[in-house]
Amino acid sequence: MGKEEITAGILPRVLAKAIDLVLCFLLIEMLPRAGFYAAVIFILIGDSLYKKASIGKKLMGMEVKSLREGIVSHGRSSILRNSTFALALMLWKLPLFVGWFFFIAIVGIEFIIMIGNANRMRIGDELAKTRVVEIVFKEEE
Predict the structure, then answer these.
(1) Digitized pLDDT (tens) for each residue of the chain, 141 residues in all
(2) How far is Cα 107 from Cα 85, in angstroms, rounded to an integer?
(3) What is the pTM of this model?
C-alpha cells in the first residue's frame, strides 16, 4: 500500500478547523478561569500536537507540509500558521459585538483567501511557508 499526498480540499479543511474551534470553545466553557488561555494555546500549537496535524486535521486525514526543504520545526510552523486564528480568538473577547465582528472578519478573510489561492493556501500558510495535504493510501499493483 503506497501513500500519496494531494492538496487538501476546501471542505475537509473547513471541517477540520471547525472541529478545532469547537474544541477551543469547549475548553473555554469547561475551564472558567484558564479555558480561554488554554484555547489560545491549543489553537497556536494545534498543528504540532500530532507532529504534522491538529486534532481536526488528523480526524479528516490531513497533515501540514513545509514548503521549505529540510525544515521540520512543527511547533514554530504551527504557531505561525495559526497566529491569525489566535488573534481572532483574542479579539473575540472584546466587549459587545465588536469581538464577534473581528472574529468573523478574520476567519472570513482567511477563508476567502484560501478559496482564491490556486494552492488553497491561507494567510497562515503563506506566513509559515506550509500547505495542507490529504493523505491518500493506494494499493500498489
Answers:
(1) 667 788 899 999 999 999 999 999 999 999 988 999 999 999 999 998 887 889 999 999 999 988 887 666 678 889 999 999 999 999 988 888 899 999 999 999 999 999 999 889 999 999 999 999 998 877 666
(2) 7
(3) 0.85
